[in-house]
Each structure stands twice: as structure tokens, then as C-alpha cells.
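RECORD TYPE: inverse folding
INPUT: C-alpha cells
STRUCTURE:
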């Protein structure tokens, strides 16, 4: 394998690639090592030039990005420490308290990491929390809590009187939530091992806001998880979309009238984004998309499109691909 790769480095300019004008799907799929079904989808929606830009961006290694835990440190203090350890720490363009690092390995060995000052999170993953816009003292439901990163951001915003209910059906995720509760000092976090589809049956009181960062294909995170483009099949999109709709319907009754529900995925495929939103609104007429541009300051507000939803792209914004829609309950 070593010999093959070294030969490839020496002679890569001699490799004859297909002509994109003859067969653009095959040409781009071969040159940029992506499955043809995915390339064909993006070509149809984005055109040749932008699809190639997205494929190129997916093949670039993403920097380690960390989010500051406001329960343990101020962003200014953590940023100074990160810069000393990593050589440089570039603040995120969109999410305050997020830093892009040049030397992530040293940062993860630093005592400040063990003490919970910060944790790995792409900048795009922090944006659904900003879209939810929780207020001090509120009770928030994090319906698909995973490792607890978004719950930590939420707790940093709701303050000492607020709390976060963190649901996840996975035993592994529940263990990670328990570990995060200790390391990050999330005293007001209540981890619950449960399926969010049953949330309205399990929880008896409504909450001030709900975040559903749903399980998805992860096709917006190929810079960090290149294996996903080969593991995911197009036929699996509908099953995931069905799960995502069920999750939304499972938590919707818990949202207080006048309050907000945010749905997000690290995918940009229509089955997992706009179509899920369309079907949810049909099933839950008491909710409507709430265009949050007026509630958010630039540049986050600039990421919200004409449909009132947030979309980020690796080739346009230099962060993972994310989608987030904000709903407000009317009654």
C-alpha cells in the first residue's frame, strides 16, 4: 500500500480523468471520490461548479473546533488559553465562544480540557442552540442529546435557575451524558434514557423550549466523517425521515403555547430537511415556521434563507453542513 500511494503522489498528474462535459456524474464522482448517487443529487440542485466546490470542500480536513463551556470559563479567558496551547485560536465567524484550532492534539491534553473549560464541537452544530434562543431560568428539553455538547451550551444560556432535560434512547449516549455532567459541571442537567418519540407520555409538564437535533445521514459532516458517504445508501433516506417526523411529533405536545421548537440535522438532503418540516407542519397545524432573522444578530441571521430556515454549507461557509428550522406554537 505504501508503494502504491507513493507512486500515486509522484504520478497523479498522469491519471486520465473522465471529461465532465461527457458524463459529469461519473467524472466528479471519480475525481473527488464520492458515490455517484450523491453527486447526481447535488448536480441537480447546485449545478456543476458549486457541486465540484462542495466535493472539494468535503475532501479537506476540517480543523478541530471547540466550544467554550460558559459554566466553567469566559470565552475571552478560554480563547487566550487556547491560543497559548494551540499556537492560534481563531474565533468562529457565526457562533460566539467557538474557536478553530491549528493544533488540536495539544489542546485535548491540556488540564483545562479535563476540567471542562471547552469541548469539541463544529461551529455549525452550535447554531441550532442560538436559533432556539433560550432565556435565563427556562426549562429546555434536549430531545436527542447525544454526548451533551448542545446541552452544555443550553445550560450556559439558561443560567443557574434554568435546567435542561436531556433525552436519548442510547445506553452509550446516556453514559456520555453522565460523564459530561461531571466533567463539564452540568449540575442542572437531568439525563434521561428514553426515546423522544414517547416524550409527551413520559414527561408530565410542558417546557419552555425544545431542541430536536435529530439522527440523520450526517452527509453535511463529510469533512470529519468521510466514511459516511460510503456507508449511507440513498434508499435509507426515507427511513430516517420517518424517524425524524416521529421525533418531532413526539415532543411537540410538550412545547408551551407561544414558545419555540427547533429541528436540526447535519444533513442538507431534502428528505431530512424541507420535506420533514413540510410534513410536520401538516400534522401539527398549531406550529408555524418562525423566521428568526429579527431575533438573531448578523452574521447568524445572514444564514437564514428566504424560507426562514438556517442552512450552512462547507464550501460556502467553511463549517459543517447543517439545517435548522425554528417553529413557534400558537396554541
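DESIGNED SEQUENCE:
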Amino acid at each position: 500500500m505504501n508503494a502504491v500511494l507513493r507512486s500515486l503522489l509522484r504520478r497523479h498528474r498522469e491519471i486520465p480523468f473522465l471529461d465532465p462535459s461527457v458524463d459529469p456524474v461519473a467524472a466528479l464522482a471519480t475525481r473527488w471520490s464520492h458515490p455517484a448517487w450523491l453527486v447526481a443529487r447535488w448536480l441537480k440542485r447546485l449545478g456543476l461548479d458549486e457541486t465540484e466546490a462542495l466535493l472539494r470542500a468535503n475532501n479537506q480536513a476540517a480543523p478541530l473546533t471547540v466550544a467554550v463551556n460558559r459554566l466553567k470559563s469566559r470565552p475571552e479567558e478560554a480563547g487566550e488559553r487556547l491560543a497559548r496551547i494551540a499556537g492560534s485560536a481563531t474565533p468562529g465567524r457565526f457562533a460566539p465562544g467557538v474557536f478553530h484550532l491549528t493544533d488540536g492534539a495539544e489542546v485535548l491534553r491540556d488540564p483545562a480540557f479535563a476540567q471542562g473549560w471547552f469541548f469539541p464541537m463544529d461551529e455549525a452544530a452550535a447554531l441550532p442552540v442560538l436559533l432556539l434562543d433560550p432565556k435565563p431560568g427556562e426549562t429546555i428539553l434536549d430531545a436527542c442529546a447525544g454526548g451533551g455538547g448542545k446541552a452544555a451550551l443550553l445550560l450556559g444560556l439558561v443560567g443557574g435557575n434554568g435546567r435542561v432535560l436531556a433525552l436519548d434512547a442510547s445506553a452509550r449516549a446516556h453514559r456520555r451524558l453522565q460523564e459530561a455532567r461531571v466533567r463539564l459541571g452540568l449540575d442542572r442537567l437531568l439525563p434521561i434514557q428514553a426515546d423522544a418519540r414517547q416524550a409527551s407520555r413520559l414527561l408530565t409538564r410542558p417546557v419552555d423550549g425544545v431542541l430536536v437535533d435529530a439522527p440523520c445521514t450526517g452527509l453535511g459532516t463529510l469533512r470529519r466523517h468521510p466514511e459516511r458517504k460510503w456507508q449511507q445508501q440513498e434508499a435509507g433516506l426515507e427511513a430516517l425521515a420517518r424517524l425524524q417526523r416521529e421525533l418531532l411529533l413526539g415532543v411537540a405536545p410538550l412545547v408551551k403555547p407561544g414558545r419555540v421548537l427547533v429541528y436540526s440535522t447535519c444533513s442538507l438532503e431534502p428528505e431530512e430537511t424541507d420535506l420533514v418540516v413540510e410534513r410536520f407542519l401538516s400534522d401539527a397545524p398549531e406550529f408555524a415556521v418562525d423566521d428568526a432573522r429579527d431575533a438573531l444578530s448578523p452574521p447568524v441571521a445572514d444564514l437564514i434563507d428566504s424560507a426562514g430556515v438556517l442552512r450552512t454549507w462547507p464550501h460556502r461557509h467553511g463549517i459543517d453542513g447543517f439545517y435548522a428550522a425554528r417553529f413557534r406554537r400558537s396554541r
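NOTES: The chain has 15 helices and twelve strands.
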